[in-house]
Amino acid sequence: MGRGKLRIYLGAAPGVGKTYAMLSEAHRRSERGTDCVVAFVEHHGRSRTETLLHGLEQVPRRELEHRGALFTELDLDAVLARAPRVALVDELAHTNVPGSRNAKRWQDVEELLAAGIDVISTVNIQHLESLGDVVESITGVRQQETVPDEVVRRADQIELVDMSPQALRRRMAHGNIYQPDKVDAALSNYFRPGNLTALRELALLWVADRVDEYLQQYRSEHRVSRIWGSRERIVVGLTGGPEGRTLIRRAARLAEKGAGGEVLAVYIARSDGLTSASPKELAVQRTLVEDLGGTFHHVLGDDIPAALLDFARGSNATQIVLGSSRRKTWQYVFGPGVGATVARESGPDLDVHIVTHEEVAKGRGLPVATGARLGRSRIAWGWLTGLGGPVVLTLLLNTVHLGLANDVLFYLALTVAAALLGGLYPALASAAVGSLLLNWFFTPPVNRITIADPRNILALAIFVGVALSVASVVDVAARRTHQAARLRAESEILSFLAGDVLRGETSLETLLERVRETFGMESAALLEREGDVAPWTCAGRAGTGPPVERPEDADVDMPVGDHMALALTGRVLPAEDRRVLAAFAAQAAVVLDRRRLREEADRARTLAEGNRIRTALLAAVSHDLRTPLAGIKAAVTSLRSDDVAWSEEDQAELLEGIEEGADRLDHLVGNLLDMSRLQTGTVTPLIREIDVDEVVPMALGGVPEGSVELDVPETLPMVAVDAGLLERAMANLIENAVKYSPAGRTVLVAASALADRVEVRVVDRGPGVPDDAKERIFEPFQRHGDAPRGAGVGLGLAVARGFAEAMAGTLNAEDTPGGGLTMVLTLRAAGTPAGASPVTTAERQAAR
């Protein structure tokens, strides 16, 4: 039995209806007679989803006990034993309860597929592993439950389930996702319009890239060279002239008119010296095209039109933008020009735009001879001139008798023409044939090989010598011109390469992609190993060719030092190209070293930050440590003094001052130690299941009696936390709220359950905090506004957030309706898998 097929409903955001779409597909398949079962689907009390489960066979779940609680999970063995044709498995990124066969649900799905069972599953875009950092920057939440991108990419079918942010928020407000009492919190946090719009864009772009991969794979497998205009890709041909800026802007406007338009600017460095590109101008044009969202490419090519068309077809472009020729009218005798040639040979799949500009017909220089690479057609014309030209000239001169001297000059001119067209060998052939024809037809006695007049012998000898000399000089000049032009092209490429690396703009993958494009290869990879006998590893790769595990397996192998090599597949490069390739290989090694140095610098920066925190700690707490110590010392000294007889009231007051100073000092030192532990990463929470109402009252010891109102129901679910860390975090939050609350206004501490998390809110009616400072107040040694030095060193909130995150929770600040600040502490409910973020779990449930 073959491998099963995987179909995934990819959600743009939680709550868009992935599970509903999956169940609808199951009903359609069941109606067609397909054996379809529900392996695992949660309806979470949603009536519409629960209704769709009716009529579908459900495989009983497996019950697992973890930390005293009972959980249900996908029974993989039962599904395999049932062996249905199609199995529905919800929540692909779900983390299984400890004790399950696999740690992740996607691993369960892999076993089902390997058994030949088709699987339909669901996943949200924010759970893709590669998008973790992006999603965190958008929503502020780090996704703990993730699925490798490759698992989703291997799916046989991916269907995007999308919904506009406004429609999704309306669904939320109508209670179709959360219960009504949880709607306000969800709308003001994760389901903000900006978050939903950004997630929607991520999903659309990811699916579009996946579709593009499918298309490229299909074209490669079926050897499709014809362009398919599925997406507007516009190639701009640049010559290095000032008109390039006009062409780039025009191409950008064309791209804006089509959905997903892309601009690719390409400069083809010729090896025949016909271009005179300004490196400065090309640098300006490259910056312009990148600012407009396009990409710049530098390619070597002897035939400009052919290279341009090959590049366009290789990138599946739909349009080419070229500028009107800068050649003058009389220069068209040398050929139709690049624009006309590209338009003639582009075929029906490529639209060619010829754009006018201010440089039209202002001249651009004439072609020059090249020698070593004259092209087949030019060499053929050279041989035709060298062999056929003397015969035709002989026929003409036999009709018009001009004298031997003039005849010799005509044959000499023909030899020079053969040298200019075809190089040395056609010229030698012309000289040989011409001398024989001169001797036979025009040197007395005619029609005989012998020569009667010795002066004619001298004339023929001079003719042959001059012809050979001219041919040699022309050939050497052509070769030197070709070498100079090639060196110039190489220097331009190396100049761009060095500029990229020096500016730090090129990643290793981008550099390897440029190597592949420049030399027209299928793939490029940088391989390295630790020693002479150690296995090779791939440090970076670009292209779609076969993987290379050893440099010897590649078509081109360029060593970089003793233990590194640049490997290319596609074709064998000529020896003269290896010089430029060696420069690319050296730069690739530099880029790799720079990347690793940057990683080391990041680690060093982390250490330096820790040292900075310690330095700031010592500088910031000098006054705050001395103040309570000075008060304690003064009170103790007064009590021990024999010169004054203290009354019982005075002694009690001094003892109370000592106790308050000691408490303040204990609190301050505790925060300092806690922050030091957080900075060094040594906080190891002892997680156990407790009730919130047992811990919160214990955090009120440091605030005046009656300053806090508690609303913590006993019916709340238990939370998985470290009791000591939770108490310290709550104590800091409550103390901070009481400190800034107006006189006579109590601080409210309320707790509520939301899905599988518990939220504790500390609400004050103080002056509040502006939006731009809500994150800054959680940084160490930060006092908001003009708080006095005695108000603390600014560590309380930083410690509270650090402890919350250590327990897999979150701590955020919100505005209190009517004025003030609300601290929202989110904790993981008991029974939630330890590797899952509370917010992630709630989003997973909302995704129904």
UniProtKB/TrEMBL annotation:
EC numbers for this chain:
2.7.13.3
- Name the membrane topology term: Multi-pass membrane protein
Query: Which compartments is it annotated to reside in?
Result: Cell membrane; Membrane
Domain Histidine kinase: residue ranges: 620-831
Any one GO molecular-function label of the UniProt entry: ATP binding
This protein's source sits in the domain of life called Bacteria
Q: Which residues form a coiled coil?
A: none
- InterPro entries per record: HATPase_C_sf, HATPase_dom, His_kinase_dom, HisK_dim/P_dom, HisK_dim/P_sf, Histidine_kinase_KdpD, KdpD_sf, KdpD_TM
According to the record, the segments passing through the membrane are 380-397, 409-437, 457-478
Q: Which of UniProt's keywords are assigned here? A: ATP-binding, Kinase, Membrane, Nucleotide-binding, Phosphoprotein, Transferase, Transmembrane, Transmembrane helix, Two-component regulatory system
Show the catalytic activity: ATP + protein L-histidine = ADP + protein N-phospho-L-histidine
What protein name applies here? histidine kinase
